[in-house]
Amino acid sequence: MTAVGVPKTMAGVAEVEVVIAHRERATLRVGDVFLKIDGDQTRTDVEVEAMAMAPVPTPAVLWRRPPVLALAALPGTSLARLGRPSTASPAAWAAVGAAVRRLHDAPLPPWPGRSLDETAARLDAECEWLLANDVLPGDLVTRNRELAEAVFRPCTPVFTHGDLHVAHVFVDGDEVTGVLDWSEAARGDGLFDLAVLTMRHPERLADVVAGYGADVDLDVVRAWWSVRSLLAVRWLAEHGFDPFAPGYEVDVLRARM
Predict the structure, then answer these.
(1) Please, are residues 197 and 96 in contact by the beta-carbon 8 Å criterion?
(2) What's the pTM value of the predicted model, to 2 decimals?
(3) CB 74 within 8 A of CB 210
(4) Nearest to residue 15, comparing CAs of 31, 28, 2?
(5) How far is residue 200's CA from residue 165's CA, in Å, rounded to a whole number?
(6) Model confidence at 5: pLDDT above 70
(7) Which residues contact 240 (CB under 8 A, 6 or more apart)?
(8) With the CA atoms of 53, 54, 56 and 58 taken in that order, what torsion angle do they form, in degrees rounded to the nearest 10?
(9) Residue 214 — pLDDT band, cuts 50, 70, 90?
(10) Which domains does the chain show, CATH number per domain?
């Protein structure tokens, strides 16, 4: 035994950190390796193929033995932590906007995404559930559902990440070093990516758009804030997360009032 009571054979073994875990999937970190465990191998197939296609930095795939995918850690730090203010510079946020634009300008992935009609049906079902179960005040749900209507308009699909929240984007100074978690990548509305990126940091929207470098309908971006939040409340609650936590989805919906 060592002085601190650890067997010598265990010296130097990295701790196992649970990054995220719920009923659908889990991500563990062991030293500089991330182990993603997903019961749905279709999601893992999408993730591996999307990372190979994306024109932005992504983690290196070390090995894959279903249901486990091993990825190398990215340099830098996440753009922000969920529920906390971002300490990244405006230039870093603009650099992320530029990276998102490169993704959206890339050739489309061969698999389709969810249509706007499907999104509308899901949204109506979630709003009915929120109201029927008194999860949120009626005026909060109704007003955000009205605001959400702006996303249902003709748009040209692009290569979207599909879950581009701040914890999935890594930066080092003002440089983007990588983007994680591509299992939701598909053809879709590019403004959805911008919305997920900024919904908890609305004060950074102008920086992201400046880096994105194209005409962006800000009303549609904000409408996606409402859509994303309304769709997420039940899922978060059922998977062990608190949508009422400061800065999370219910706060986003309240801010839209």
Answers:
(1) yes
(2) 0.91
(3) no
(4) 31
(5) 9
(6) no
(7) 22
(8) -80
(9) confident
(10) 74-255 (3.90.1200.10)
